[in-house]
Every structure is written in C-alpha cells, then in structure tokens.
Amino acid sequence: MALITMDSIDQHWVTLNEGAQKEAEALGVSVTFMSPNTKDDAQQIECVNNAVAGGYEAIMVAANGPDAISSALKEAQSSGVKIVYVDSPANVDAEATFSTDNKAAGRTAGEEMLKALEAAGVTSGSIGIINVNAATDSCVMREEGFRSAFEGKGFTLLETQYGEGDAAKSQSIAENYITQGVVGIFGCNEGSTTGAGNAIKASGKDGIIGVGFDKSDAILGLIDDGYLLCTMAQNPDVMGSKGVEACVKALEGDSLGGVVSDTGVSVLKK
C-alpha cells in the first residue's frame, strides 16, 4: 500500500504515518509513505502515478484539493487500485473515508473563542482567519464551522487570508491582522496555528485570543506560554490505522460501501 498525504513535514502527517505503520505491522502488510515535500497538486498527482506504476495495490490518500487529483485517482482505480481517504477526500468515490468532522470541530473552535472573549468582557470586534487555501476540503469545512459559531454575535469576521499551511507566511498574515486591531485569530491547520501564535507572541499584546487546529510541539508550547487559548487536536494515528485496516478488507474483497467515519477531535487547553 502507498500512503500519500498533503506533505511529509507536518507532525500531523508524520503521526498519521506512524499509526498506519503500526497497523501494517500488526496485519503483516507493507505501507510506503510517499508524500510530497510540500502541499502541491502536481507533486501529489505524481505520487499517485508513481504508486500505480510501482504496482501498489491500494492507496491511502489525503487529497490536497477535491478536484485536482481526481483524474489521477480515477486512472488508479481503472488499474484495479483500491482508494481509501484519510483526513481529506477528493471528489471520487472511494472504499472508505476516515477523517475529522471538520465542520463540527471548526464550530467548536469558534465557540471556545467566543467563550473566552465574552469572559474577558469583549462583545464586539474583528476576527482574522488564516486558512491553507480555498480548495482543501478539510480546512474549508473548518472555516465554515468556525464562522457559523459567530452568526448574530456582534463580531466582524474579516476576509480569509491564505498562508498555504506555511508557518512563516501565516505569521506575516497574523501580524497584519494584529495591526488592524483584531480581538481574535483562528488558524485552520498546523502551520496556520503556529504562525498565529508566533505573531501574537511577537506583538507583545494581551487580549488577542488565538485558537487553532492540530497538535504539534510548537503549538502545545504556545498554549503553555499563554499565546494560544486552545487547539482542536485530531487523531491522525487513528486515521492511519483505520485506513490500513480498510485497505486490507477491500483487497480481501469486502465491500465497505464508501463509509465515512469520524475519527474525533479533542479541545486542548493549558
């Protein structure tokens, strides 16, 4: 089996791979982690094509976007390769999907920020959102959920800015938001959240509520130091292990019916 995630650097994907490798060892199968170095559609398509050319029987994929990779996945399926989604699906039917209910988790993130703002006596103001891009399904759903928590609440949610999941780019975006006087910043993934926390830290300003997504050492450090309120921690190891299990069942001839399973989320605070 091949495991193709959006990149090979974020701790989220490293942990997902660890979960997959552990399950693969238990089931006596082999998983190759063959992800691009950076979030790039062309590189991800190349990984899919390489897996097909290399004779892999199943591909677990976290799609960078819902459409760009679709034709490559359809070609893989026509070659008899089984497709299972982990974290983020594309617009192609697959055996199964294991991901966070991102819209619900995004709403939870919004509710946590709202509670903190209200507890501080802040009932209005602008809020910045840093997302990866406008295409990645998981992150788009998180933003939708987050925005829904603020409907009718008296806050202004600014136009989303995109940092491509890069912590340095995201920090620059957050710094720009801070100069606009925002009361809160939401990061939609690991790099976005790290950038937001670093910008709040660098600003030296109190009272900006930072909320984000994913769990990394950098993010946990920013929460401990008080620069981020909380993060929505997914369970990428569960996505990886369940993905391998589903691939094995599909290869053994079981019909999984395209089932979508929520792998859960936890709110991590100081």
The number of helices is 9
* Biggest sheet features: 7 strands, mixed
Class by helix and strand content?
alpha/beta
What is the CATH topology descriptor of the largest domain? Rossmann fold
CA-based shape: elongated
CATH superfamily of the largest domain: Response regulator
At CATH level 2, the architecture of the largest domain is 3-Layer(aba) Sandwich
Order of helices and strands: EHEHEHEEHEHEEHEHEHEHEE
Taking all Cα atoms into account, the compactness measure Rg is 19 Å
Fraction of residues in helices? 40-55%
How would you describe the oligomerization state of the chains in this entry? single chain
Q: What gap, in angstroms, lies between the N and C termini?
A: 38 Å
Number of domains: 2
Instruction: Give the number of DSSP strands.
Output: 13
Unreliable runs, pLDDT <50, ≥5 residues? none
CATH secondary-structure class of the largest domain: Alpha Beta
